[in-house]
Amino acid sequence: MKTMYGRQFATMVGMVLLSFLMLGASFATLSYQYTIREKKDTLERNAKYIAQFTSDSVNAGGSEVWRTPAFQKYLSSVAKVSDSHVMVATPEGVIVYATSGDADLTGFQYAELSPDTVASIVEGSRVGMDQLDGLYREPRYLVGLPITNAGGYLQGLVLVSASASNISGVWRDLFGILLVTTLAVILIAAIISSVTSMRQSQPIKEIAAAARQFGLGQLDVRVDVGNRRDEVGELAEAFNAMADSLSKSEQRRSEFIANVSHELKTPMTSIAGFADGILDGTIPPDQERHYLEIISSETRRLSRLVRSMLDLSRLQSDERAAQQQFDLSETLVRALVTLENKVNAKHLEVDAQLPDEAVPVWGDQDAITQVCYNLLDNAIKFSQEGGVLGLSVTVKGPKATVTISNQGETIPPEEQSLVFDRFHKTDHSRSADRDGVGLGLYIVKTILNSHKENITCVSEDGVTKFIFTMTRA
């Protein structure tokens, strides 16, 4: 039983069988004991009636009352009704009359009981399985009582016995009924268990088959959940969700490789082309310096791309950001100061709306400094000449909100949700921004995600805003 279906089926049948065996054994024992007790009570009650009737008859008619037809008829009636043998014996143990109800037991008449048997009856009563000193070939259930008068004088003995086969027959009938019931229940349980086990194991087999196909690179395989809402259905749904995630990851990996290839190919093509032109004399000597400057610029661009990719890999490998307390306003101002030359080069007006007091927040100060630097650098790069560069910090509840804005071209609505993607540029020709590598905003979002913070982009009427939050300390 190596399969889940086989194990569950065997477990179900085994539990049902064990339960019925225990229940059957208990029921059989109790029913047998009840039958024996009921038979014992009946025999003892009949023996008492006969003893009392015999005592009254002896007192009224003398010691030979057992010979009278009325007395014998009474004993025969009791024996017939109770399906038993009734015997009357003298105080010395000589059986003077015996009947089975249907006929007199002449073979028992004048038989003598052993002194031990007589003594046990006289001392109180004798109850149990007995062959009555060999008078019976097989043990019978026997009850023996003394017959005494009101003064306690021993007048004789009365013995009532019943065949043990009657008691065993009742028990066998009960056992037969229990056995048939047990087999019927096991059959029904086996059918139900077979159906339910197959129904439960089928989705797992499908998941296993889909996992094997996944191993072969077929990422479009899914498991049909159907209407299942149990644990197996949840497992199938989780598997499908995992499959979707893996498929998207594979798609993103392919896109990432394609984007990296494109970003690397363009400057490398320029470097190789201009270098070959200088080497083979295609480029005149008086223009070599100009093209060497282009080669140098493209080389620095390649360096920035590799450095950004290394930073991104480091950020994605960190499980959580380091937590420390720092002033958010001061961090923003320091990032702005480092970009002073770029601000002056575009003749931008800086509109800073910062609180007079410090704004302490929790997070990795170096990482948030990079967030502020990237957002400010991006805002300066795409600002119009002489425009306004805005930055503000507001506090509301447990959060501090930073807003960085610039005046320039409006980002189309369909592009606003994509600006944080890797290598995404609103200029699809990738020629307007020669210094960028398309990873700045993606790095920003990655850092803020590691801090469990949000960032949004809003661009309308020539004003573009990037808004992110931080948790106050």
Classify the secondary structure makeup into a structural class.
alpha+beta
Give the SSE string.
HHEEHEEEHHHEHHEEHEEHHEE
What is the name of the CATH topology of the largest domain? Beta-Lactamase
CATH superfamily of the largest domain: PAS domain
How many domain modules? 3
Proportion of residues in β-strands: 15-25%
Q: How many β-strands, per DSSP?
A: 12
**Largest sheet data:** 5 strands, antiparallel
Instruction: Return residue spans where pLDDT drops below 50 for at least 5 consecutive residues.
Output: 427-434
Distance between the termini: 60 Å
Coarse morphology: rod-shaped
Helix content bin: 55-70%
Q: What is the CATH C level class of the largest domain, in words? A: Alpha Beta
Spatial ordering of strands, largest sheet = 2-1-5-4-3
Q: Whole-number radius of gyration? A: 53 Å
Average pLDDT number:
81
**Distinct helical segment count:** 11
CATH architecture of the largest domain: 2-Layer Sandwich
Explain how this protein is built.
The protein is α+β, with helices and mostly antiparallel strands. It has 3 domains: 166 residues, Beta-Lactamase, CATH 3.30.450.20; 96 residues, Signal transduction histidine kinase, dimerisation/phosphotransfer (DHp) domain (Helix Hairpins); 148 residues, Histidine kinase-like ATPase, C-terminal domain (Heat Shock Protein 90, 2-Layer Sandwich). The protein is 55% helix and 17% strand. The protein contains 11 helices and 12 strands. Strands 2-1-5-4-3 form a 5-stranded antiparallel β-sheet, with helices on both faces. Strand 1 and strand 2 form a beta hairpin. Helix 7 crosses helix 9. The protein starts with a helix and ends with a strand.
